[in-house]
Amino acid sequence: MGMCPVDGLGTGDSLAAPRRGGRHGRLHGGLGRQPGEGAPRVGNSDLDSGGKVRRTTYSDWMETEYASEARAFDVGELLPRMLPLEEKHKAWASREPGRNASFYRLLRPVDVAPLVAKLRRAEGRPPEGGAPASEPPRVWTYDGQEGQAFIDGREDNMKQFKPGVYDMKFVFSSNNAKHTVRTPYWREWEDVLRPIIEAVLGRGACERLIRAQLAYMTPGAKILHHRDTGNWVKAAHRVHVPLEVNDRTRFQVKLHEDDDEWVQIPLEEGRAFEINNNFMHRVFNDGELHRTHLLIDLGEQDDRTYIDLQPGEHCEYAKLNKFGVCH
């Protein structure tokens, strides 16, 4: 007998009649358990390194249905088919069959080659890729992001939860998602960002962005267990577009509070997916090469306005949160 559906995962006995979950999701095949791995549970430290891990493949997950695989579309057509934002208020998955939409939803694959090529040029790497000359490449440091603007007051968050991870911000918001800024790098990189965002999320998606950034994990880096917090999380659809991954990158999500299991989701370059980032998650880059993702937080309101930052400008995150201004 197959397993009970768990927040969008397939069941061994559901192949003949795939169910729909959330609003318009198509479910693929069954999912088997893999032997547990990692250290035994030792207090809270296990959340960063241990627990049993269940590996999955793309065939185990719901796939967002697009009205047409060929034609261009508007973001408003896709939003009703994405993970309902009310699901973002949940911290854990239900064990009751039929009670969950998916905490993870496959989106369509997209050509990321132009963005990767531009990124490699900025990093000083050859077009064919390979390891950079230094870790991290200078463009991933704030000193190396010439002509960029910066959000001050976020450094401690990166150091605490994401040692060895660096970012490049294009769009960023206040904690409550009411105030949004665009950096000069949005204008510099829009030519390669917009085609990816619109191919996955539709025309008009770039005008609903709450946050958009690149994340670079150095070899051996970890993103420690955490939930993304703040009202912006519940106001946005979190979308990952893997740009460069290696087979020793592990992205794991914890579904239930009362067990020690983590679900490991598949990663493939250009294969976009939506995830409920209010669920506890962690990431390991155990490979000898870096990992780079494009992270997109898509809002649903169509009247969002942006503060366009100027090169060299520093926006104080605390003031953006409290007053909706940078200074």
UniProtKB/TrEMBL annotation:
<dbReference type="InterPro" id="IPR027443">
    <property type="entry name" value="IPNS-like_sf"/>
</dbReference>
<comment type="similarity">
    <text>Belongs to the aspartyl/asparaginyl beta-hydroxylase family.</text>
</comment>
<protein>
    <recommendedName>
        <fullName>Aspartyl/asparaginy/proline hydroxylase domain-containing protein</fullName>
    </recommendedName>
</protein>
<dbReference type="InterPro" id="IPR007803">
    <property type="entry name" value="Asp/Arg/Pro-Hydrxlase"/>
</dbReference>
<feature type="domain" description="Aspartyl/asparaginy/proline hydroxylase">
    <location>
        <begin position="206"/>
        <end position="298"/>
    </location>
</feature>
<feature type="region of interest" description="Disordered">
    <location>
        <begin position="1"/>
        <end position="52"/>
    </location>
</feature>
<dbReference type="Pfam" id="PF05118">
    <property type="entry name" value="Asp_Arg_Hydrox"/>
</dbReference>
